[in-house]
Amino acid sequence: MTADHDTFLSRAPLFVAMGPELARSTVQKHTPRFYERGEEIFCEGEAADSFFFLIEGWVKVFRRGDEGEQVVAIFSAGDTFGEAAMFVGGHYPASAQAVSPARVLQIDGAALRRVLLENPQVAFSMLASFSDHLKHLVAQIDRLKARSDAERIADFLLAQTKETSGAVTIALPYEKPLIASRLGMKPETFSRALVRLRDHGVKVCRDDVLINDVGALSRFAARPPGAEARSGG
Asked: 28, 137, 202, 221: least surrounded by Cβ within 10 Å?
């Protein structure tokens, strides 16, 4: 694992609860796997005997039904997924698929259970960490509800760049319908809001977006330039 991976470990609630040394030793026993865009990581109904740590890329968790595909959550680098099903046992209630080239670490559930048995205090720390993460997600949802569609998209676009001023071109990390789903809107609503962002210097060309003035768009979105966004759905 590299220094960047250590940074990601420090963001994932499950690993934060372990502490840096224990988290690093747990992760180092496993080898990351590369997934192409569209490749499935696990399928609904499979035995839930592992959880996953996303090192690079984007992953969606979804269910297939009579009315088509329903996206449950979208994860980015530094996130873990599949742990809830693993703790409960049984089978994965949904499928996971890479929506961009992704590097994923699959961690054996038995290995994590051994860590918890040998370090009982970690289990309590883990519950506290998960609770804090849940509060963050609830606050994030409330923040989305309080903002217009255009502001939500502007905030998402700004999260894709580290630039704080001037013009920048960014590549959308995954398909527009998935971005719409993540931001809590329908694809047609997303398209209309993108059009309205033209008045704020945003131009879309296929999967690339040109922001004429990052600072101006940040003021519109009421978002500090360069602020990091968290994912998780």
From this structure: 28
